[in-house]
Specification:
Number of strands: 0
Number of helices: 3
Order of helices and strands: HHH
Structural class: mainly alpha
Helix content: over 70%
Distance between the termini: 53 Å
Radius of gyration: 32 Å
Length: 143
């Protein structure tokens, strides 16, 4: 019995089609390397964002602990017997300190978020710059 020739694989047919059309050769290793660098940059960006989120959670925990400590002290001061003017003075002082702490904390939280976002975006921007340079270099090689 005569053996039937094996059919060409899709990849072989596509390669032959590319050769017949005189398509430029594609360096698969360069493409894989390029995308590997993209993924590494994305991973670094995500790590920077996660680090910022972790710092934010730590700052919020610190803020809550500080607020609870202040409230406990204020409650103990209010329960102590004293004249009404002293009581109002303590309450006003507590309100002032709370407001100042809230403003300070809000500024620190905003700075953590800004720094984290900037770092994360800068990592991606740098990769885009590198990628554009790689593309330019590959065109220069072909000329």
């Amino acid at each position: 019995m005569a053996k039937k020739p094996e059919p060409e694989s899709f990849l072989d047919m596509f390669s032959k089609f590319g050769r017949d059309l005189k398509m430029p050769a594609v360096d698969v290793d360069d493409i894989v390397s390029h995308h590997r660098k993209n993924l590494e940059a994305l991973e670094k960006s995500v790590r920077a964002g996660a680090s910022g989120a972790s710092s934010l959670v730590a700052k919020q925990r610190e803020m809550i602990q500080s607020a609870l400590h202040e409230i406990t002290e204020a409650a103990q001061g209010i329960r102590a017997p004293g004249n009404p003017q002293e009581l109002l003075s303590k309450q006003a002082d507590f309100a002032r300190r709370s407001f100042e702490a809230a403003l300070k904390n809000a500024g620190e939280v905003a700075e953590i978020v800004r720094k984290s976002g900037t770092e994360s975006v800068e990592i991606l921007r740098e990769r885009i710059r590198q990628s554009m340079q790689e593309i330019r270099d590959s065109y220069d090689k072909k000329k």
